[in-house]
Amino acid sequence: MSELLLQGYCIRRGTTLDRALLVKFMQRTYQDMFPKSDFSHLAGTVEQYYSCETPLWWVDFVGKGDEGGINLSPRAIQTPVACLWVGNAIDQVRGDRHSHIFLLYVVPEHRRRGIGTALMRYVENWARTKGDHQIGLQVFESNTPALNLYNQLGYQTQSLWMVKSLHEDKTTS
User: Which CATH number covers residue 124?
Assistant: First the structure.
C-alpha cells in the first residue's frame, strides 16, 4: 500500500522479498563515495540484519496523472528512486533502545527535490509512534550533502567512529 510522501512521490513499505533490491541500493550508496571498491559483501549484511523487525521503505516516482494529480495506481509505480532502512540500537550511555538508520539513499537523478528531508521526517514520526526518544545514524565525514541534511534537521554529533588500518605501511618497510 502506497501513500503520498511529497508531490510526485509515494512511499511504500518493503517486504523481506526485497533483499536483492536493498543490496543494490546499499551498493550504490557506497559506490557513490568509494567508486573503485567492491561491495559484494553487503549482501551478507542484508542477509544478517534485514527482517520484519528492521523496516524498509521505498519511494517511487509516480509523476502526475492525466488530470494533473498524483497517479497512485499500481501501473504508475516505477522502479524505486529512494529507500530508507531502519533498525534498532541501544544508547550506550542511557541503555535505551532507539531507532537507527541503516540506509538512506536517493538516486542521483532525484536528489535535491526534498526526498531525503521527507524520508527523515517520515522516520522521525514513525519512531515517535513507537515511543522512541531518539534516532541514530552513521554518516561518512566526507559525505557533505548528507551531513548538511542531518545538521539542518537538528542531528548532532554524539560520538566519532574511529578506525585504524592494520595493513602494513609499505613506505616504512
Answer: 3.40.630.30
What pTM was computed for the model? Answer: 0.84
Q: Is residue 26 part of a domain?
A: yes
Cell triple for 92: 550506550
Q: What is the pLDDT of residues 35-47, one digit of tens each?
A: 999 999 999 999 9
C-alpha closest to that of 118 among 54, 61, 51, 50? 61
For residue 78, the model assigns a pLDDT of 65
Count of domains in the chain?
A: 1
Q: End-to-end distance of the chain based on CA atoms, in angstroms?
A: 60
Q: How far apart are CA 143 and CA 163, in angstroms?
A: 17
Buried b (16+ CB within 10 A) or exposed e, 149-159: bbeeeebeeee
